[in-house]
Design goal:
Number of strands: 11
CATH superfamily of the largest domain: Periplasmic binding protein-like II
Number of domains: 3
Low-confidence stretches: none
Number of helices: 13
CATH architecture of the largest domain: 3-Layer(aba) Sandwich
CATH class of the largest domain: Alpha Beta
CATH topology of the largest domain: D-Maltodextrin-Binding Protein, domain 2
Strand content: 15-25%
Order of helices and strands: HHHEEHHEHEHEEEHEHEHEHEHH
């Protein structure tokens, strides 16, 4: 069993077809079929059920599947560690909340690219739940998410502290006015948004329950819906500062116990801290406070 066999196994399992796996791997179907049969012979178990529509992964295959990204990452990290002479280089895949990427990471990306041109940096946005899973599955080297996160396989470091504000249409001059609305929607990011529970708990504390959540994937869409009076949202004060200044939305400050939130950087506990990742984290740690940078 080698890593090439495992990559073929993962592709077939994910795509449910030997032919589609062959197309993705830029090879012929007979090669994929031969590799899978050889792997099954070596392990002494069937990894797939064959049927007219393709294949489905057996119970044995499902048990083995989680090891594939871990083994692939481990081999890649071993190669990286051997070649890492302290000069940041190579691929670096990071994740971030949409708000964190726009507010905190965007100013750092250009600076990092100029300082370390040999690093191929890719940043993916998503919800906290999605990004945590991507890190656990070794598809990201690390991610900036809403903390705290408690997981035995992850280590975290507090990177930023943000003040959250309640964002409403400009005609809402006080949060108490929200209770007068017959139906209130909460405008949030996709399922797994860390701000959704905070917002619902905040509204419940004001006696506002039974709200309807509307989920969108883009910050601009959320702000446009709030500005149009569709609903309310909860966002870092810095991310809505321009929209507030232009009169598009209103931002309402919250009690200190509800307002502050932490953004943490997390990565797998067993992962290799490369020079590239270390350099990016050092840059993030030295970033100016938001009040000074805004």
């Amino acid at each position: 069993m080698d890593i090439a066999d495992l990559r073929v196994f993962e592709a077939v399992s994910r795509l449910g077809s030997m032919n589609r796996a062959a197309q993705e791997l830029h090879t012929v179907q007979s090669n994929v079929t031969a590799r899978i049969r050889a792997l099954e012979d070596e392990l002494g178990v069937s990894l797939f059920h064959r049927h007219a529509r393709g294949v489905t992964t057996t119970v044995a295959g499902q048990r083995m599947l989680p090891f594939v990204p871990r083994l692939t990452t481990l081999l890649a990290e071993a190669r990286l560690a051997a070649q890492d002479d302290g000069t940041p280089s190579g691929a670096l895949s990071l994740g971030g909340l949409e708000t964190t990427t726009a507010l905190r990471l965007s100013p750092l990306l250009g600076r990092f690219a100029r300082q370390h041109p040999a690093v191929r940096l890719v940043v993916t946005t998503g919800t906290t739940a999605h990004l945590v899973e991507e890190v656990l599955q070794c598809r990201l080297d690390g991610a900036f998410v809403a903390g705290p996160i408690q997981h035995p396989d992850l280590v975290q470091e507090v990177m930023f502290r943000e003040e959250l504000v309640l964002v409403t249409a400009p005609g809402i001059t006080a949060p108490t006015m929200l209770g007068e609305q017959a139906a209130l929607a909460t405008i949030v990011f996709q399922l797994g948004c860390s701000y959704r529970l905070k917002l619902e708990a905040l509204l419940a504390g004001w006696g506002i329950v039974g709200t309807t959540p509307l989920a969108f994937g883009a910050l601009d869409t959320i702000l446009a819906c709030v500005a149009a009076g569709v609903g309310v949202t909860l966002l870092p004060r810095g991310i809505v500062a321009r929209a507030v200044a232009e009169g598009q939305v209103a931002a309402h400050r919250l009690p200190a116990r509800d307002a502050m939130t932490e953004t943490v950087f997390l990565r797998r506990r067993d992962s290799y801290l490369s020079s590239a990742l270390g350099a990016f984290l050092d840059l993030a740690r030295r970033a100016e406070p938001l009040s000074a940078a805004a």
